[in-house]
Design goal:
The protein is mainly α. The chain folds into 2 domains: about 45 residues, no CATH class; about 100 residues, Glycoside hydrolase/deacetylase (TIM Barrel, Alpha-Beta Barrel), CATH 3.20.20.370. It is about 45% helix and about 10% strand. Strands 1-2-3 form a 3-stranded parallel beta sheet. The longest helix is centred in the first third of the chain and has 22 residues.
Length: about 150
């Protein structure tokens, strides 16, 4: 027979697995609730098409990004590269290759940090700072697009 401690421990493990499953698998029903709570945030698009969005995080990287670009090109696949703006120095050519090959770039702030722990003001400041750095690669300034 399970002791009270073992039962509580087992319950905690099951709850943890459930929470992690929801976090990693992001069930559509949960996202629909989140959209109602935060309508200004874009989470997903309803579609019947069988499509995959390829995203590359934490770039550019002098070693891996060119290899990823080569693989994407061989497979006629486009992706969105989320760029950390402090990594732009001496990597401008890589970002130009990303854009010239028809890929999109996204703003991953100034450095790789957990944005959930930033205040609204800190997040906005870091986002706009990175935005200014990324605008040099765009045909238009993203902060002026409404």
């Amino acid at each position: 027979m399970l002791t009270k401690f073992r039962l509580m421990f087992l319950s905690a493990i099951i709850l943890l697995i459930l929470i992690l499953s929801i976090f990693f698998y992001q069930p559509r029903w949960l996202l629909k609730i989140i959209v109602k709570v935060a309508p200004g945030v874009y989470y997903f698009s309803e579609t019947t098409d069988k499509i995959v969005a390829v995203t590359i995080d934490d770039g550019p990287n002098t070693i891996t990004t060119p290899k990823i670009l080569e693989t994407l090109s061989k497979n006629d696949t486009k992706a969105t590269f989320f760029i950390i703006s402090e990594r732009l120095d001496k990597n401008e050519e890589i970002v130009e290759n990303i854009i010239n090959n028809g890929h999109e770039i996204g703003n991953h702030l100034v450095k790789d940090e957990k944005s959930i722990f930033l205040s609204k003001e800190e997040f906005e400041d870091k986002f706009l700072t990175a935005d200014k750095s990324l605008n040099q690669f765009l045909l238009y300034e993203s902060s002026k697009v409404t």
